[in-house]
C-alpha cells in the first residue's frame, strides 16, 4: 500500500501547489493540511519510507503557511505564524531565507511595514550569502517551488522591500494617545482586524480619526454621549479653537455608515489688501509692463507643469496602477511624515539604512540606556517595549532590530535617547555623525530655552512625582546628596533645573513627556518642544514675547532701531526710491533672520508680496518650513530662503532653469563657494530637507506635504 499512499500524497500536493499558484488559497490550505495529516497519521518514519526528506516536510509546512497568509484573516495569520515557528525549530539553516520571507509576508499582510521590512532584508541578505536550499520541487512532483530559485526570490524580495520602505498612505490614523489596538495606530481598510473607524472634522480643518474601539473608550470620558451630540463641541486638538462640524462613521466594510454635519459660521479673518508699488516715471511704468509680461509667460509654463503634476497625481490615485507601481518618492515622504508625526522620528526613519549598518553602537548599550524608559512603557502594557527589553538578553540581537522596534513604537523620547547615544560614538559614518551631533545639540539648546521660558509655569506644578523616575532621580539627587535633603531644602525642582546642566534639563523634559497624562497643562508646551524646537536647527530666532503667528505680526511696523540690511546682488544693484519703501516698512520679510545681511532683490519684491499673501493664507504651512530646517548655516539658510521663494512662485523647476539659477553668476563668492562644496547647485539645494527632486525638477517639500 506504500505505492497507494504515495499516489494519494502526490495528488494532494499537486492540488495544493496548483491552487496556491491560482490564488485559490483556501483550497491550497486544505490540500497542504491533508497532506501533512496523512504524513502524521501514517506509521512512524512514514515520510522516510515514502522517500520524503526533511526539506520536503518543511516545504509542505511552508506551503500551508503561505496559503494561510494569503487567506489573510486574523485566525489564519496566527496559524501561519505558529507553523513558521515550527519550521524554525527544525533549525535547517538553508531553509531560513524562506522562513524570513514567509514571516515578512505575514507582517506585510498585517500592514506592519517596518517589521516586514526587517524580515525581507534578512531574507535577501541570506540569499546574497548564498545560504539557500537550492532549487526544490514540491514533494513527489516536478513542479519547481519558485522561491527556491535565487533570482526569483531576490526579485520578489527587492519589490517587497521597496513597498515596505515606502508604504501606502494609511486610510486613517488613530489619534488616541494610547491607542488600544496593539499593532499600530495607522488604519488601513485592508487590516485583518479592521472594524471600521470614526472621523471627526472641525471647522478649522482638523481631522481626527479613531479606531472604533479607541473611540468607544474615549467616549466613556464624555459619559457616553451619542456621536451626534459632539457636533458644535470644541475641537479635541489642544490648541484649536474650532468647533466640531462633521462626524463620519465608517463600517467594517469601509463604507460610510452615517454622517452628522453642523453648519458653523467661522469668524471672518480680514484679508490684507495687496500692496502695489506706486509708479511715477514713464520709464518705470514701461519696465513694469515688461516685467508683468515675463511673469505671465512664466505663469503659463507653470500651468503646463501643473498639468503634468496633476497627471502624476491621477496615476497615483488610480488604484489599478497603484498596487503594481512603485510608490513615487513624493508620496513616500508625505506618508512617512504622516506616519511618524515627529521630526526626529522622521529623520531617523530617513537615515535608517545608515543606522542599520552602523557598528559603533552596540544594541546592548542602547537597550541599557533605554531600559528605564522601556520598563515604564512596558509597565503600562506595551508589548514593543517588552520586546526591546528582551533584546538585551539575546546575544544575536542587532542594532537594526532595535531601531526597527523603536520606529514601530514611534516613541519620541526613545528616538532622542538613540540620537544622544550616537552623538557620543566615535568612528561613525561621517554623514550620520554630522546629522546626529547637530540634532543632539539642537535638543540641548532647545531644552535650555524651554526651561527658561516655562520656569514660571513649571513652578506652579507639583513635579515631585517625576522624581520617582529613576534617571531623573539619579541626576537630581546626585546634586543634593539624598532625597530627604532635596525635599527639605527650600530649592524647588524648577529652581534647581534652572541651574542644572542642559543634559539634566533635557532629561527632565523627556521625563515630563513620558508622564504627560499627569500634567495636562504641559501638553501644548511639550508638543511645541518636540514638534518645532528640538528636532531641527532653525535659524528663525524670535524673541520670547513676539507672537509666533505670522498672521498676527502682519501690519505691525518694524521698530526703527532694528538694523536692516539688503542682500543686493552685484549687477542687479538698484536704488530704493521713496515710493518703493512702503513694501519694506511692512515687515514683509519677517521670515528672514533680521541679523542676516540678506534681503530679496528688487526685481523679486512684487513676487514676494504675492508669496506673503499665500503664506499667510495658510497659517500652519510655515511650520513645515521650520521642521524641515535641518541646516544651521545662516548663509546657506538665506540662500535656501531665496530659492524657496522662487519655487514657491513658479512651482518645481529644473535646476538649470534661468528662473532659478540665472542669477547664480552674480552671487557673492561665499555663496558660490558653498555651492561648490556641495557639489553643484542642485546638490546644494537638495542638502536642505526643504527641497526635493521631483523627476528632473527641483521642488519644495511643502508641496509634497500637501499631496
Ligand atoms: Zn486606536
Ligand atoms: Zn480643530
Structure description:
There is one protein chain. A hairpin with a 4-residue loop joins strand 3 and strand 4. The protein contains 33 helices and nine strands. The strands form three sheets. The chain has a four-stranded antiparallel beta sheet with strand order 4-3-5-6. Among the domains are: 2-165, Serine Threonine Protein Phosphatase 5, Tetratricopeptide repeat, CATH 1.25.40; 172-261, no CATH class; 550-706, no CATH class. The model is unreliable at 270-280, 308-333, 537-598 and 619-631 (pLDDT under 50). Helix 6 runs antiparallel to helix 7 (113-128) and helix 16 packs antiparallel against helix 17 (399-409). It is mostly helical and 707 residues long. The protein binds zinc ion (2 copies). One zinc ion binds next to strand 4.
Please write out the topology:
Elements: H1 2-21, H2 25-41, H3 46-49, H4 54-71, H5 74-89, H6 96-109, H7 113-128, H8 150-165, E1 172-173, E2 186-187, E3 197-202, E4 207-211, H9 212-220, E5 244-250, E6 256-261, H10 282-317, H11 319-322, H12 329-340, H13 343-350, H14 352-357, H15 363-379, H16 383-391, H17 399-409, H18 412-423, H19 430-459, H20 470-480, H21 483-488, H22 493-499, H23 502-514, H24 523-533, H25 550-553, H26 581-585, H27 605-617, H28 621-628, H29 634-650, E7 653-654, H30 658-661, H31 669-677, H32 681-686, E8 691-694, E9 697-700, H33 701-706
Antiparallel strand pairs: 1-2, 3-4, 3-5, 5-6, 7-9, 8-9
Bound molecules: zinc ion (ZN) (2 copies).
